[in-house]
Specification:
single chain, mainly beta, Immunoglobulin-like, 2 domains, 8-stranded antiparallel beta sheet, globular
């Protein structure tokens, strides 16, 4: 006797969430230099930071000498923003980014600061115009304004946001943005996004295809035609992921992206192309995904 049996094929090689995040994490680059003489570092993506002689001080304000260690993170694409955790919004207002960087300095394990006596001459920065070529200004991170969330502070959101730093000179050259580094912290070449269309609020909920519990959920929008990536914080009042109130221009196109980690450690992943509509709600399918599926989508943004 003989029988036929359907070949189910090789099961998908689903990706672990930690592996996906590690593969796309923003690399921290490390450099050393002589604080007395000054030196220049150049990042892998083209960011250049030039430190003047005696540009570093310790926690007590004393000028530091000898060898110092400088680290650099470059966020120069929408994909970089997506995995940096530092989104392009200012107290709920959309920003267009020309690039973000994080510069830190240490000596013997102790954090250093930019020498304030050098004013705006301590550390000069050039960021290549690979993410955007529009006219930008310098933004720095500060504590979010009270009540800046979508429902009067009932959102699970980052406590920090971007605010303009108009007191620092900023240059829009043909190939790079140039400015003085105000401090060893995140800085951003940014501008407020202007759109004449009416603004609205949208909500979203993941629709899971698996029964496993999912944690570390992130719901984000990557906009199609502008260098803008935002998160939709979870709003405890509506029990939905929700944009900031009346912050999104109707008609703007974006990719909704959901990332999470199930109880087996696999990534839960979903994407959906949307056009912002008035008071729209999105039920977004989310499923276990392979590394190749995630990478293929990321190559399109």
């Amino acid at each position: 006797m003989t029988a036929c049996k359907k070949d189910k094929g090789t099961p998908p090689n689903y990706a672990k969430a930690d592996d996906v995040l590690a593969a796309h994490a923003i690399k921290q680059q490390s450099f050393t230099g002589n604080a007395d003489a000054g030196f220049t570092i150049t990042g892998e993506k083209g960011t250049k930071v030039t430190f003047a002689p005696n540009a570093f001080v310790d926690g007590a304000g004393n000028v530091v000498s000898g060898t110092v260690t400088v680290t650099l993170k470059e966020v120069l694409s929408k994909k970089d923003v997506l995995f940096s955790g530092v989104m392009t919004e200012s107290n709920g207002q959309l920003l267009e980014s020309g690039g973000e960087i994080l510069v830190k300095a240490q000596k013997d394990g102790a954090e250093l600061q930019v020498n304030p006596k050098l004013q705006d001459k301590g550390a000069q920065v050039e960021i290549p115009k690979v993410m955007n070529n529009g006219d930008m200004g310098l933004f720095i991170q500060e504590r979010r304004q009270q009540g800046g969330g979508a429902s009067g502070g009932n959102q699970q959101e980052s406590p920090y946001t971007w605010v303009p730093a108009p007191y620092y000179p900023f240059g829009n050259g043909p190939n790079s943005y140039t400015f003085s580094l105000p401090s060893f912290s995140w800085v951003n070449c940014d501008r407020f996004y202007s759109d004449p269309n009416p603004k609205t609020t949208i909500t979203a909920l993941p629709a899971f295809q698996d029964n496993n519990q999912v944690s570390d959920l992130q719901v984000m929008l990557v906009f199609k035609n502008i260098a803008t990536v935002i998160t939709l914080p979870f709003d405890y009042t509506s029990q939905k992921f929700q944009s900031y109130q009346n912050s999104l221009p109707i008609g703007l196109q974006a990719d909704l992206i959901i990332l999470g980690k199930d109880s087996d450690g696999f990534i839960q992943f979903g994407t959906q192309s949307i056009t912002i509509g008035a008071n729209m709600h999105i039920d977004a399918p989310v499923h276990k995904a392979t590394q190749a599926e995630v990478d293929a989508f990321l190559a399109t943004i």
